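wait is this the right file?? whatever heres the structure
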């Protein structure tokens, strides 16, 4: 089905949107390792959850694998931004792999909290999505001390007694509102439960959700750019729908159904923290090709966050005189 060429339409761009500091750091790390060592460079799991980023890096010589047993002994391997468990690090040592750890520093912070609380005898309730790589890596830090909950119903079903030492931690890419509900339920059931000094949901996830909340009342429909396995991307579309606006997640402009926007005078556009800005440009071009379109930012919010490259990469670059 094709939509008629509509009269003037406005495309509102959410801000902030797109790449966060952790994603930029991870993608840059793969590109710099390729430049330093040449292809192939192996990457465990998708470096970030975006199919376009993965394809671009594959074209440059990166080889993505599910597990380390697919990596030849002695090779260079990059860990994804989502982190790994101690068991993975041990396997890398056993195989003599040269590791570049591109785990987002905010994920590493949660790992360190899990280790600290476990050492101090705490039971840890971890709020996250089963099967997500970040969850697997974090729970691998203290498997005997951690229990996973995904929603408020899971809290009701918890059977851990009333331990004196009890704490909750969270995956970094969750819905802010849904997580707050789970935490409230935890505190009702376990009044003694403690939380981290600073919330674990990362600044980029919170900021992108806040931007959608601010903008969604001004639009007829929201498009969210990002891949289906990107947790923070899916949360953005969910949020808009919970606020009563139709929302569609797309990997790129080829997935837009013109029927979605036939009657829309104002379309909102945002992108998850793993989606490059080039995809936003492509979607803007798709709209301009189909009629007069004003593209303007709804807001201008600069995050100003940057992370240093992985330690192993900085050492390797220094040894190479770069």
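ok assuming it is, sequence goes like this
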């Amino acid at each position: 089905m094709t939509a008629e060429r509509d009269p003037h339409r406005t495309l509102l761009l959410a801000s902030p949107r797109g790449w966060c500091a952790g994603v930029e750091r991870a993608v840059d790390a793969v590109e710099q390792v390729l430049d330093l060592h040449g292809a192939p460079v192996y990457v465990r799991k998708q470096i970030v959850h975006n199919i376009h980023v993965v394809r671009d890096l594959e074209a440059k010589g990166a080889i993505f694998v599910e597990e380390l047993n697919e990596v030849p002994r002695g090779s260079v391997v990059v860990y994804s931004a989502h982190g790994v468990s101690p068991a993975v690090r041990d396997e890398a040592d056993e195989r003599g792999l040269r590791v570049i750890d591109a785990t987002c520093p905010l994920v590493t912070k949660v790992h360190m909290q899990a280790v600290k609380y476990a050492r101090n005898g705490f039971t840890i309730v971890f709020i996250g999505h089963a099967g997500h790589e970040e969850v697997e890596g974090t729970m691998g830090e203290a498997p005997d001390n951690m229990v996973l909950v995904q929603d408020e119903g899971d809290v009701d079903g918890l059977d851990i007694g009333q331990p004196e030492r009890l704490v909750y931690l969270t995956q970094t890419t969750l819905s802010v509102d849904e997580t707050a509900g789970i935490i409230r339920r935890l505190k009702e059931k376990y009044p003694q439960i403690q939380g981290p000094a600073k919330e674990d949901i990362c600044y980029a996830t919170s900021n992108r959700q806040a931007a959608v909340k601010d903008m969604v009342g001004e639009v007829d429909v929201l498009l969210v750019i990002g891949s289906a396995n990107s947790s923070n991307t899916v949360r953005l579309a969910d949020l808009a729908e919970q606020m009563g606006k139709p929302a569609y997640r797309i990997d790129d402009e080829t997935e837009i159904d013109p029927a979605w926007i036939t009657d829309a005078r104002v379309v909102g556009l945002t992108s998850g923290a793993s989606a490059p800005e080039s995809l936003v440009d492509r979607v803007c071009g798709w709209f301009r090709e189909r009629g007069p379109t004003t593209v303007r930012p709804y807001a201008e919010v600069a995050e100003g966050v940057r992370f240093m490259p992985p330690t192993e990469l900085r050492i390797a670059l220094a040894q190479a005189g770069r």
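The chain has a mean pLDDT of 95. so i think its the right one actually
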